[in-house]
Fold:
Amino acid sequence: MSTTEVARPRGRGMSKRTREALKACLYHLIVASSCFVMLYPILWMVASSLKETSEIWTKTASLIPSRPTLDHYVAGWAGFGGLSFDLFFRNSFIVAGVGTVATVASSACVAYAFAKLRFVGRDFWFSVMLLTLMLPAQVLMIPQYILFSKLGWINTFLPLLIPRFFGGAFFIFLIVQFMRGLPAELDEAAEIDGCGKVGIFFRIILPLIQPALITAAIFSFYWTWEDFMGPLIYLQNPRLYTVSLAIRAFSDPSAGTNWGAIFAMSTLSLVPVFAIFVSFQRYLVQGISTTGLKG
Amino acid sequence: MAQTRIVPVGKAGKGAEAQVLSRRKARKGQRERQENLIGYLFLSPWLIGFFLFTLLPILASLVLAFTDYNLFSTPRWTGLANFERMFFADRRYWRSVKATFQYVLTAVPLRLVVALGIAMLLNRGRRFISLYRAAYYAPSIVGGSVAVAVMWRQVWGGQNQGLVNYVLQALGLPYVNWLANPATAIWTLVILAAWQFGSPMLIFLAGLKQIPIEYYEAASIDGAGAWARFSSITLPLLTPVILFNLVMQMISGFLVFTQAYLVTGGRPLDSTLFYALYLYLRAFEVHEMGYGSAMAWVLLLIIAFFTALVFRSSTGWVYYESAGGRA
Structure:
């Protein structure tokens, strides 16, 4: 690629090692500088949240606040309309936490049925499940809304939580893929020892599929944490707002122009996401490259 | 690689199944009934959820598409009226279709090209690769969030001059009102999409690792240059992965909502009023549930049509090694 072409003329006459070192240098220069460009908007948001208000739109491009301050975090946390961000974060953690546990647990059960059990209609239901993976949420959104509103679930967390107890097609698929990679001898041996199908699931399979469960949990948490459309449709009461909805309300042109505070709360809302990303990166990369889905 | 692993359950277990079958014949009846019972017991969460939250809503949506329904009165059957209005009377609908296609036709290729380019850069196996990979993936991990969308609006202007204009002016270039100009507003969303190339990049990277290094070595010995190696080894062997990424990104391109809702809100002059956004406005802001359902079904058909089209065309350009060349 381009790196070889650029390095060659300069490297003529040098020893092979110097040329290699130059090439490596150039490579790292190109990759690292484009990384910086990639991350710049996010860094800019973080930097702006630490700048003094007067500086945000005057020294706009700078990433280093001349006098770093946490004032915006204090002001932002106080929230709006008498509701502070600890309420919104609590709501988000409830929705994302309960939703994730429910999805992963139910998906693991269903995946076990598809991957390890034999029953009439298994292949048929599996292809149906794969088909639902392709189904755009927009088609289900309206009738589901009608159903939940008839049940009186609008302005509760129920429409966001209850469907999560019935497994998610993507996570079922992910866990099935993983289970198929497990050696069949393990559960056969357990069966010979007199262990029932239920026992095999809890004692043999569950401990072995932990990496898949962690990958599923990370994705589920991300998608719920960042979900906007669901809360937007079902939660109109500001007391129930998730962080996503709260930031949107906070940044509404008619409501606020305190950009420092808005950037501060936006930065905070990304902290759980980045914390998980940094500590579980390995699982994420595996999850995406083996199932090849979304993000 | 992703698609090679999508094997229907039955295929893998068939041989073993036949073996066990003869042994099982004696106690067959009772044993089989028990196996079915346990199977459906474990399947039941998904099966119940499928009927309640997927099948029932789909059927309801199909019926609603032919009605006038505002959530409070009873649905009134109107036949094809919703579709007539959509295709022949609703000019905003056509503007939303146009904006959506503009977006899909620009954002999807751009995102795939960037993803492939970066994946090739990262496939060279030097130091700090995992660090770089994480840095390139980071924008994608937060890409769908409200925080990033709110930030993005301020990058391009919003209520202030914005970051981009600040830089432009510092360089002595003219000020552009990105978000207020119908010609430029959609590009802020296209660039936002191109910026989040993380997951296709990881999938490309996995695909690139499958290509045997010997192919490149042999080509180099034969005197093939960098471009020849790319166009006659990398690209053909990567076509199954390209197909997969293309289909996935195209589908998500047709469904784009959050970013448009928050960054441009469909403005100006409906130039970024994407299909999903207009559907949301119709269904949830003016409560035209019947019209919204009709729109959702047309969207489903559009996506199905273009997915099928891509798969159809793929026989002409996707190279499967096992089949010994072009199918």
The two ends of chain A are 28 Å apart (CA to CA). Residues 99 and 204 of chain A are 25 Å apart (CA to CA). Chain A has 15 helices and no strands.
